[in-house]
Automatic annotation (TrEMBL), chain A:
Signal peptide, first to last residue: 1-21
Species: OCS116 cluster bacterium
Keyword Signal listed: yes
GO cellular component: outer membrane-bounded periplasmic space
One Pfam family it belongs to: Peripla_BP_4
Protein name: Sugar ABC transporter substrate-binding protein
Length: 346, 338
């Protein structure tokens, strides 16, 4: 009798949880009037423009009569400019700001002020490190798994043993730092015991600085085998530097790159392998998330599942890299090499 | 020794002092960085300084007239992008057409600065601070978030800067470096030998006196900005050829680096004196310090900028103190001989 009761209870629980899950997949109602701002790190970089394309696509699909603005600071003014645009958006009463954060935690006061004014803050690409002032983060990939992927690419390029160095963007880009930290963590595994990470340098996402830093790395570490650059500007500059100085046999370049920009270096062996995700999709998913949160259809709570148009269902979960913060994980990413880079470059 | 020092002209003395500082820095780093002194180092510095040499030369021309051009980095970036975009769309354009385009475009930007500074009498630091942001924003608009990529550029353009013209052992003299050096020397000869070019110094050391002796100082300042713009344009062309990838951040920060190179090179920030050869050595010194610091284990990433700043300050101070001492000695000896 007792066991039967338990069984009944269990099955009731099971059933309720199943029906609970099904009822909770929210389909966003289109046509809500919400003004939104897409705020990239700075203007003029191809990947951010692609994200905007994706957001505009979602904007049309959801028939939002409001405005979708694509505004960002100029490159030399990125941190201050982001804070300023955030502040302005709050006073304008924008429904949501979609932010690729380049200002570290410096953005927090203005983001909190915007939230207090009723603006929802959805981050994408690069989150607010402390998670304060942020409703939810749309992560392109799992930050931990990108570390493993980079470690694996280094492993295959080095044939299992050798020296590698990282060429990053700026020292305060939170996504870069999280990926590098994840890679360091991955490198602790037994598989990578013979791989030594010798240095991390910063090229500020400027081609000329990255180019010189890459050469300096080669000069500083004569046995260097791989330069890992988790930024589309850095990877390209490093590959060109190795090509110009005839060092491609000795040092391979890898990291995150755009197929169109990396094509020649992949085919000539300077950068045989690299990875990336689709920024258009990232913009699209971010828009759906922000639209849902700003229209009140999503509460922005852990466990909520919703349908993001053509991309399917996504669930809000706790961000494992930033306890207490929430994220939506997009994934996956593609590894490019000489077999698939040409098709992707078109 | 002292007698010799008093006979050499002060500009030459300054260059010699700079070379001494350069050698000291070289010696210092060769002691703390393994595998330092070799042909490779020469190749690194010479390839990287080619672009800065042209920018610093332009900056020096402006500084000599008591002005400053903070927009020069934005001009380099814009020209690099625009030249890249025109050659991407018209791959048949030859070197002459492209270089002309780059220099004219740069001169156009220089003319905007020049008109406002010379004829509307707005201080150059304010004008060029504004145009620095303005030109950069125009680039952001113009670029439409695209970037120039190496794969769309003709082969001759990409291979040009690294073409080895001749070499001694591992030291390679590459085309971009040789072009830059030739231009610096030509400008130097003009500045020291041509009557017209000397007007830059006259206007810089005393604008009122310049007007009184019938020099059109407005025109001189205007021309200085145009020349700086066209040199920045040429630098933009080399920038495109060297890096291949041009985004809207191209050339960011070059304005301050060029001012640093000029000042380290002994160009008086208050106008009236200085040489472009000095600026060239200044540019090489800044580059040498910057590159060597990256290789020096002792200095971490976050301290490098600070250490670079300190070294620049030290070399400028050492130069100033040394020059004052020498001038004092010269005066003294003049007094004795009279």
């Amino acid at each position: 009798m007792k066991s039967l009761k338990l069984l009944g209870l269990a099955s009731a629980l099971l059933m309720s949880s199943v029906s609970f899950g099904a009822a909770d997949t929210i389909t966003l109602e289109s046509g809500k009037d919400i003004n939104m701002v897409l705020l990239p790190k700075f203007l003029g970089i191809l990947v951010f423009d692609q994200a905007n394309d994706g957001a505009q696509e979602a904007h049309k699909e959801l028939k939002n009569p409001g405005e979708l603005l694509f505004v960002g600071p100029t490159p030399e003014n990125s941190v201050a400019g982001q804070i300023e645009i955030m502040t302005t958006s709050a006073t304008q009463g924008q429904g949501a700001v979609m932010l690729s954060n380049n200002a570290g935690d410096q953005i927090v006061p203005s983001a909190k002020a915007a939230q207090a004014a009723g603006t929802k803050i959805v981050t994408w690409d690069s989150p607010i490190p402390s998670g304060e002032g942020e409703d939810v983060f749309v992560a392109q990939v799992d930050f931990g798994s990108i570390g493993t992927v980079m470690a694996d690419m280094a492993h295959s390029l080095l044939d299992g043993s050798g020296q590698m160095a990282v060429l990053s963007a700026t020292p305060d880009a939170s996504n870069q730092n999280a990926w590098i930290a994840a890679m360091k963590e991955a490198l602790k595994g037994d598989k990578y015991a013979k791989i030594e990470l010798v240095d991390v340098v910063y090229g500020n996402d400027q081609a000329e600085v990255s180019y010189n830093r890459a050469l300096a790395l080669v000069d500083k570490y004569p046995d260097l085998g791989v330069i890992m650059s988790p930024t589309t500007v850095g990877i390209q500059a490093a590959a060109k530097a190795m090509q110009d100085e005839g060092l491609c046999d000795q040092v391979k370049v890898s990291g995150l790159g755009l197929p169109a920009e990396m094509l020649s270096y992949t085919l000539n062996g300077c950068a045989p392998e690299f990875t990336l995700w689709d920024f258009r999709d990232l913009g699209y998913l971010t828009y759906y998330t922000a639209y849902g949160v700003a229209s009140g259809q999503l509460k922005g709570e852990i466990g909520e599942t919703f349908t993001a148009g053509r991309m399917g269902d996504y669930t809000i979960e706790e961000d494992p890299g930033r306890p207490g913060s929430k994220r939506i994980l997009m994934g996956p990413f593609t590894i490019y090499n000489k077999d698939n880079v040409e098709a992707a470059a078109k | 020794m002292v007698a010799l020092l008093t006979k050499i002209n002060p500009q030459l003395l300054r260059i010699l002092a700079l070379l001494l500082v350069f050698l000291t820095v070289l010696l210092f780093f060769s002691l703390v960085v393994p595998n330092y002194l070799n042909g490779r180092l020469f190749n690194r510095i010479s390839s990287s300084v080619a672009i800065m040499a042209l920018i610093a030369t332009g900056q020096t021309l402006v500084i000599i007239t008591r002005n400053i051009d903070l927009s020069i980095g934005s001009i380099v970036g814009f020209v690099a992008f625009a030249t890249g975009s025109i050659v991407t769309n018209n791959p048949d354009l030859g070197p002459v057409a492209l270089v002309t385009y780059a220099m004219l475009l740069g001169a156009g930007f220089g003319a905007i600065n020049g008109v406002i500074v010379a004829y509307l009498k707005v201080p150059s630091i304010i004008v060029t601070l504004a145009t620095m942001a303005l030109f950069r924003s125009v680039l952001v608009e113009y670029s439409n978030a695209k970037s120039i990529t190496t794969s769309n550029l003709p082969d001759w353009l990409i291979s040009f800067p690294n073409t080895v013209l001749w070499h001694f052992g591992n030291m390679q003299f590459r085309a971009a470096f040789v072009v830059a050096i030739v231009i610096v020397i030509v400008v130097h000869i003009c500045l020291s030998r041509l009557r017209v070019a000397r007007k830059l110094y006259v206007v810089g050391s005393n604008p009122e006196a310049a007007e009184m002796v019938g020099i059109n100082s407005k025109l001189v300042v205007f021309v200085a900005f145009i020349l700086a713009g066209s040199l920045a344009g040429l630098a933009g062309f080399l920038f495109l050829a060297r890096f291949g990838t041009i985004t809207v951040v191209a050339g960011l920060g070059l304005e301050l680096k060029s001012v640093a190179a000029s000042v380290v090179g002994g160009v008086n920030i208050f106008g009236g004196s200085g040489t472009v050869i000095g600026a060239l050595i200044g540019a090489m010194l800044v580059d040498l310090i910057d590159m060597s610091l990256v290789r020096w284990q002792f200095v971490s990433e976050f301290w490098r900028e600070a250490v670079l700043g300190i070294l620049i300050l030290l070399s400028v101070t050492a130069d100033a103190v040394l020059m004052r001492k020498l001038t004092a000695i010269r005066q003294k000896r003049k007094g004795v001989s009279e």
